[in-house]
Write a structure and sequence with these properties.
Chain B: It comes from Zingiber officinale. Chain B: Keywords: Acyltransferase, Transferase. The complex is a heterodimer of chains A (1014) and B (192). By secondary structure, chain A is mainly alpha-helical. In chain A, 69% of the residues lie in helices and 0% in strands. Chain A contains 47 helices and 2 strands. A two-stranded antiparallel sheet of chain A has the order 1-2. Chain B is 20% helix and 30% strand. Chain B is globular. Classes of the chains: A mainly alpha (1014), B alpha+beta (192).
């Protein structure tokens, strides 16, 4: 750190060091005292000021820090004699950056650069400022200036990077690339290149301009030796040749890579693609990416249709002979690529119809006989399995099952091979078509297999994966299928028991935990789901890719505080990264890793445009509004910080929606909920495999999910502003005719109307059609179910329509029939929707996927927003400064308006009382009663009595001796108990319901007091 | 099936299935990105068919050789030290569950040792491991590593770490791996 003090703004180092030491050890108070002392001695030193600002910022006093920084900046600008050095500037920069004022730091550096025109250190500092601000043009100009000043290659390459960024990120004309190429050419003519990354950058310039031949020439020449790892060089060369349509040369290059890396699957695909001259859609990747992946459709639509049959066969023969050679070279090891290659070759032949289809199944079988005992077997062949016809599928499965009759001698191999077979079954969706009894027998056999093979894991360290672990996940999946097909709750509980059992034996299996998160969410035991989610220790970048497992359920639950924690952790991670990312880009510039510069900038953009991030930014204020919805004043405070919701509206504009990125990793989600917005279990099971295949097509579902998320973001962005406007305009009606209101009022009414039109379009109808539908339901001409599944959005719409209608009176009948006003519509809709949710006779315990989340949302959203509208109306009815009136409002106003408000309050009271009764009924039973009830589902009679129930198999395993399974597993088996799990489920359900009840009670209390005041 | 290539930022969005494993730490972004920014060639990822990440690893010149594997193997590493202490350091090794027991870690460790040996001419490769992580210690021993010394409270001031080493061809007399008799504290580590 000493170097940092060399030129400490003209202050002797011995005076500064104690301050830094105190800052580094987080003794901010002490450091502030020292900094004040320093300032007393050097009152006009910008460095002393910057230090004080830095300390204040760390102490959480951003405004004071900013004031002092501005003072320092002012000194730098106004006082020519003041000492300016890199240390002062960089300290100021740190503070400005932490205060989100990058532009002020840039101004300081720009000023210093004018003052000291040839100071390279300060120029580099300014360059970094431009990097932070993404000012690519300024970066380019400054880098060129530095290049001209000192002639160093790195500055030229900084300029070239800045040009590439302009083309990549700002849709600047590609012509700029010509300029970059010319600059590099000129430099290379006199200085050549000395850095592998410089070469890669140059190649990428050529590739982006589709000058593939030129790029190949450069790479094949002397400069090519700059790339130290030969295979990396060959991969780039192969890709360039392929893009130049020089397939035979590319084939040769890829063949060379395969000879040294026979397991390189991507290169094998490139080799085959080039050999067969497929019309590959080579990714528009440039040389900065080392891999040459063409993008393959899952079904591999690439057909070498322009080759004659003879030519095709001859090329396939050469591929076969290469593969055979590779297989011989790596025989006996774990190298799978050369063997999987056979299946791929057969797939190509099959596409071209040149060979008998049987060969494809045979190739799969051969691969199974060789690698069927590896746990990656199923994922290796997964994409191929989906190409099998029904007939082939049966044949393949039949042959696989035969191997079970004569298993390998090693029990471990036999177990692993059996697991692979089960995985193939799962992958092919066999569980959806097998008869129920067969399915039930299979699960029990699998479970017995797991228990029997526990002995194999006897000597394993508890941290190691146990043998057969995957069986329990698969068993649980099949049990969920059984539940879906029969609606018998017992199956679902068994699925849970099996996973809990597995976690008792080894508590580290994250796959079980994720499955439990979803199963408990489904079962209304969300606190338990949350607990397991927390056990996954999801942090850093995983919050972006993994939080979808819990967040959607939490947002619709009464667990507001936990939801707030999840959101704030997530936003903190994202904001921190977005803030720090540019500094890391600077590190890449400094270390001359230019390909990473481009990659970092693009990655920052990708995260910055994350759909999850945008949603979270909307979820936070909405959650705050829900939490504070009982107090109009507090809600208004929230709106003060939200710019009255206007800023949130901008978050769903068309431009933002176009560049939205979806970064979630849906891979580990359960089969029945491939995306957060899909839950197959909510619908009834329908027979028919093709239908299921279509339904379970994850890729397609992911695309649909994107559409749903975009709609959701738009709705969420409209919501706060609609609430705000509803509160603002409801009292307007009391002022009389709108025409007499202020211009401001008229604008608000106009705005809410246009937002409502947008909202209606979002939920699927035009504004007029949506209104007609609401009225038709109100009049009993149409059933409630015509609203579709998203009743929350419809009811929100209804509440806001009422607020708007208070000023416009569009919904009133010409006969002034009081029952036709919009208040009545809201009351009717809330009452009907809620009572419909309460009519289910079963308890939450008995209804997986119960209506509780809907009920919670009805109360937390439309009902809460409606109470806010009521509060706003009442506040405006009361004379200013008087909170309570001796005579009731109804008496004083004597208007139908006041009556409507009173009726609405009464309606809400009765609705909430009903909910309260319903919830109380749910939690009235003791935990013991619940446990008995849950256990009874597990002990139901089975059609396959000889195998016993799942529970009995689990319980029987408890008797396995220490000598069989070892002390640790034996102790775990003893400690496991189904009753304990049932008790946890019951407690979690009770806790969830209690939290909901307390929300309802707080709203009831509020309504009673409102009722009293009118 | 290991297509081993440079690790890129987008891989961070695909490594959940490796990193959810309790023995694999998910570091903050600047940790990964600093490695990428400084030693991109030594931060590699292995990809299986269907684009599953099998694992990853990274290491770097002039500071410390670290590798790591995810659900698909990968490693991160770097090289550090001066004179006879010039060495590669393995930061982490992790392999996705379904790719375990295929000697993938061995393959990646060898790759790293080779680079340290042939390209960087290092004297030895070292790594730190939790004293309680017996499976890992056994695995490293199988790969030829010996326990060089114990570092007290190395992990968050709680658990001890073991510094394990393997000599490379440049250390002809294997001086670098003669075990130290007494444990050291983290402050005594040479490159801190």
């Amino acid at each position: 750190m000493a170097a940092r003090f060399g030129l400490a703004g003209g202050i002797p180092e011995r005076r500064v060091r104690p301050i830094w030491d105190a800052i580094d050890s987080r003794q901010f108070k002490a450091s502030l005292k020292l900094a004040n002392g320093l300032l007393a001695k050097y009152p006009t030193s910008p460095y002393a000021l910057a230090l004080k600002a830095l300390i204040l910022e760390r102490m959480g006093k951003p405004e004071e820090a900013l004031g002092i920084c501005l003072e320092a900046k002012e000194l730098l600008h106004s006082n020519n004699s003041v000492h300016v050095d890199y240390l002062t500037l960089s300290t100021l920069q740190i503070v400005f950056q932490r205060l989100d004022h990058l532009e002020l730091a840039t101004l300081c550096y720009e000023h210093a650069c004018v003052k000291y025109p040839n100071n390279l250190e300060i120029m580099i500092g300014l360059f970094n400022c431009y990097v932070r601000e993404c000012s690519y043009v300024k970066q380019q100009q400054l880098a060129m200036k530095m290049y001209k000043l000192v002639g160093e290659e790195r500055f030229l390459l900084w300029a070239v990077c800045s040009i590439q960024l302009q083309v990549h990120c700002s849709s600047t004309s590609q012509k700029l690339l010509q300029l970059a190429e010319a600059l590099m050419k000129k430099h290379m003519a006199s200085n050549s290149l000395h850095d592998p990354e410089a070469l890669v950058l140059y190649l990428s310039l050529l590739e982006q301009q589709e000058k593939f031949d030129a790029a190949v020439e450069v790479l094949s020449g002397d400069l090519g030796s700059l790339i130290g790892i030969q295979e990396d060089k060959l991969r780039i060369q192969g890709r360039l040749l392929a893009r130049a349509c020089n397939y035979s040369a590319a084939t040769e290059i890829f063949e060379r890579v395969l000879v040294s890396c026979p397991d390189d699957w991507e290169v094998f695909l490139c080799y085959l693609g080039c050999l067969l001259e497929d019309d590959l859609n080579w990714l528009k990747m440039d040389a900065t990416m080392q891999i040459c992946s063409p993008s393959f459709d899952d079904n591999g639509a690439c057909k070498a249709n322009h080759l004659s049959n003879d030519e095709f066969n001859s090329r396939i023969s050469s591929a076969v002979s290469l593969v055979q050679r590779l297989q011989t070279d790596c025989n006996g090891g774990f190298v799978r690529g050369a063997f999987l290659a056979n299946i791929e070759i057969e797939r190509r032949c099959r596409l071209c119809g040149t060979k008998h289809d049987d060969n494809f199944v045979e190739a799969l079988l051969t691969y199974f006989y060789r690698f069927g005992h590896l746990s990656c077997f199923a994922s290796d062949v997964e994409n191929f399995l989906h190409l099998l016809t029904l007939e082939e599928k049966d044949k393949f499965l039949e042959k696989l099952m035969k191997t079970l009759e004569s298993p390998p001698a090693s029990p471990l191999k036999a177990l692993d091979q059996a697991i692979s077979i089960f995985k193939v079954h799962e992958s092919l969706g066999v569980m959806f078509s097998l008869p129920l009894t067969d399915l039930e027998v299979t699960t029990k056999r699998m479970l017995q297999m797991y228990c029997k093979n526990l002995t194999l894991s006897k000597d394993l360290d508890p941290q190691e994966n146990m043998h057969g672990e995957e069986l329990l996940s698969m068993i649980s999946n099949i049990l969920v299928v059984l539940f879906w097909r029969t609606r018998i709750l017992g199956y679902l509980l068994e699925a849970i028991m099996v996973l809990e059992y597995g976690l008792t034996i080894r508590r580290y299996v994250w796959q079980y935990k994720i499955q439990l998160v979803h199963l408990y969410s489904l079962l209304g035991a969300l606190p338990l789901a949350y607990e397991w989610y927390c056990m996954l220790e999801v942090k850093n970048i995983l919050v972006e890719t993994v939080s979808h497992h819990i967040l959607p359920q939490m947002l619709n639950s009464p667990l507001w505080s936990e939801t707030g924690d999840l959101l704030s952790d997530y936003l903190k991670f994202m904001d921190d990264h977005l803030r720090e990312s540019a500094d890391l880009t600077s590190v890449a510039y400094r270390h001359r890793n230019y390909s990473k510069v481009i990659e970092f900038v693009q990655f920052k953009e990708r995260l910055g445009h994350s759909s999850r991030l945008l949603t979270a930014r909307l979820d936070v204020p909405i959650l705050q509004l829900k939490q504070k919805a009982n107090s109009l004043e507090e809600v208004e405070c929230i709106f003060e910080n939200l710019n009255c919701g206007s800023k949130l509206l901008e978050m769903s504009n068309e431009d933002k929606m176009k560049i939205l990125t979806f970064n979630e990793d849906f891979h580990a989600r359960p089969w029945w909920s491939p995306t957060p917005n899909i839950n197959y279990l909510a619908d009834n099971f329908e027979e028919g495999f093709p239908w299921l295949k279509e339904k379970l097509n994850k890729k397609k579902k992911a695309v649909e999910e994107e559409g749903i998320v975009k709609k959701l973001i738009e709705r969420k962005s409209l919501l706060p502003r609609l609430i705000y406007l509803s509160i603002q305009i409801s009292p307007i009606s009391l002022k009389g005719n709108v025409g007499n209101g202020s211009l401001h009022d008229a604008d608000a009414i106009k705005e809410i109307k246009s937002l409502l039109e947008k909202y209606a379009r979002n939920i699927g109808l035009s504004f007029d059609d949506a209104m007609s539908l609401l009225l038709a339901i109100f009049k009993g001409q149409k059933p409630l179910k015509d609203l579709g599944p998203d009743i929350i959005s419809w009811l929100n719409f209804t509440v806001f329509v009422n607020a708007w209608n208070l000023c416009c009176h569009q919904l009133e009948s010409p006969r002034k029939d009081s029952s036709m006003n919009s208040w009545s519509v809201v009351d009717y809709m809330l009452r009907s929707c809620i009572s419909e949710q309460l009519t289910h006779p079963e308890t939450v315990l008995a209804v997986p996927g119960s209506n509780l989340p809907v009920l919670v949302q009805l109360v937390a959203e439309p009902l809460a927003w409606h109470i806010l509208v009521i509060q706003s109306c009442i506040r405006s009815m009361l004379p200013a400064g008087k909170k309570k009136k001796k005579t009731g409002l109804v008496d004083s106003l004597n208007s139908s308006y006041a009556h409507a408000v009173c009726d609405s309050v009464q309606c809400l009271i009765s609705v909430l009382q009903d909910i309260g009764k319903w919830v109380s009924n749910q939690i009235r039973k003791s935990e013991d009663q619940d446990v008995d009830r849950l256990l009874s589902h597990l002990q139901r009679s089975s059609s396959q009595e000889e195998l016993g129930s799942i529970l009995s198999i689990l319980e029987a395993s408890e008797s396995m001796s220490v000598s069989e399974v070892g002390e640790r597993i034996s102790a775990a088996l003893q400690s496991w108990s189904a009753a304990t799990v049932c008790r946890k489920i019951s407690a979690a359900q009770h806790s969830l319901l209690s939290q909901f009840l307390s929300i309802c009670e707080s709203k009831l209390k509020l309504l009673y007091s409102i009722n009293k005041s009118i | 099936m290991t297509t081993i290539r440079r690790f890129c930022c987008n891989d961070l969005l695909r490594f959940a299935s490796v990193n959810l494993d309790h023995l694999t730490e998910t570091f903050n972004m600047s940790f990964y990105m600093t490695y990428l920014a400084r030693w991109p060639d030594y931060f590699r990822v292995a990809v299986a068919p269907g684009n599953h990440i099998m694992g990853y690893s990274k290491f770097s010149i002039a500071v410390d050789l670290l590798y790591y594997f995810f659900a698909i193997p990968n490693f991160m590493g770097k090289v550090e030290g001066q004179g006879e202490s010039w060495h590669g350091h393995v930061t982490a090794v992790t392999v996705a569950p379904q790719y375990r027991r295929q000697q993938l870690a061995k393959k990646l460790m060898h790759l790293l040792e080779n680079i340290s040996d042939k390209m960087d001419k290092a004297y030895f490769v070292d790594l730190f491991v939790r004293a309680s992580n017996m499976p890992a210690i056994k695995m490293y021993e199988k790969l030829g590593y010996v326990i060089y010394r114990r570092v007290l409270h190395y992990y968050s001031g709680e658990e001890d770490g073991l510094d394990m080493r393997k000599a490379l061809s440049r250390d002809v007399d294997k001086k670098s791996i003669i075990p130290l008799k007494r444990p050291i504290t983290p402050d005594e580590l040479e490159y801190d």
